[in-house]
Amino acid sequence: MKRHLISAADLSRDDALLVLDTAEEMARVADRPIKKLPTLRGRTVVNLFFEDSTRTRISFEAAAKRLSADVINFSAKGSSVSKGESLKDTALTLEAMGADAVVIRHGSSGAPHRLATSGWINGSVVNAGDGTHEHPTQALLDAFTMRRHLSGVGRDLEGRRVTIVGDILHSRVARSNVLLLGTLGARVTLVAPPTLLPIGVEQWPCEVSYDLDAVLAKTDALMMLRVQSERMNAAFFPTEREYTRRYGVDGPRMAVLPEHAIVMHPGPMNRGMEITAEVADSPRCTVVEQVANGVSTRMAVLYLLLGGSEPAIATTAPVPETAPATTAAARTEESK
Questions:
Q1: Considering the domain boundaries, does residue 81 fall inside one?
Q2: Which partner for 63 in 123, 180, 299, 330 could form a disulfide, CB atoms 3.0-4.6 Å apart?
């Protein structure tokens, strides 16, 4: 893997599979009574969040702590940023504190790239969402979830059909998923009203449709996106009711999906708009599972960027169930 993770385009197919395989191992660690590994002991991970977040921030914090890293949580609110401090001066402060990795979420597209290429920080930079640009670790955890349901460990998503529905225009999740899923061999279709599709979307490695009902029957994974009203300064559709009628998923629409298909959502959900409570609470909906998988996937990313580059899946003979598992990610004695 490269030194930073700024875009899903930074990952080759082998890189992506390495992250997913490593995440499988990290998920097994989560099932143990003691969930910590000593692999990043002595390393410092800074969560630098300029935008509000629940799942992503807590997920990265849990991931770093389970790898025994020291974690510093930085929020723009209540910091010198609210007094006008620049990104450069904030970064130099973090560098002076010895940050080995900076996980950054920022409202401006390109901020993580600027941080990674500026020379202000010597450690690794992980993009946790920048403006309407990308959110690569969300795409990784989504692919991890899909693979568990649709393909199996050690395989990619070759030939699987993924439909992403909703506010594509403002969605960094959609951009990262299109790139990563294409790398893994999936066939992606974007479904949205024309007003919620970005200019140049026809150049993306995916198909585009305006009719949700036309693609449901051949969908393996249906990913619903929230309408990001906070990023809108104009009316992009007539009414919420009209949007729900054409682009929301409910019980009857879920029934059209193939039996093996899953319904996904990166959260937070607007129940009653893009997804009904019936679907959100269905066993076929993976929203809660995606949150759990986010910790395992982000553990894998931090481990590979800071700790090692070997495949996490052991290739030696199986270890007896009575003995503790020995893997590339946990080669030393487990910490307390």
A1: yes
A2: 299
Number of domains in the chain: 2
What is the three-class DSSP state of 334? Answer: coil
CATH number at residue 162: 3.40.50.1370
Tell me: do 83 and 23 sit in the same domain.
yes
**Distance, first Cα to last Cα, the chain:** 30
| Secondary structure E strands in 124-272 | 124-130, 161-165, 187-191, 207-209, 221-224, 262-264
**Residue among 2, 91, 81, 41 at smallest CA distance from 331:** 41
Shared domain check, 285 and 140: yes
pLDDT per residue as tens digits for the range 193-249: 999 999 999 999 999 999 999 999 999 999 999 887 665 555 566 688 888 999 999
Strands (E), the chain: 44-49, 70-75, 101-106, 124-130, 161-165, 187-191, 207-209, 221-224, 262-264
Give the structural domain span for 37: 8-134+290-306
Spatial CA neighbour of 94 closest among 114, 113, 115, 110: 115
Does 140 lie in the same domain as 237?
yes
**61-105 per-position pLDDT tens digit:** 999 999 999 999 987 765 566 556 889 998 999 999 999 999 999
Residues contacting 172, CB < 8 A, separation 6+: 129, 130, 131, 132, 133, 134, 135, 138
Active site residues: 55-56, 83, 105, 135
**DSSP-derived 3-state class of residue 23:** helix
69 and 192 share one domain? no
Is residue 69 located within the same domain as residue 104?
A: yes
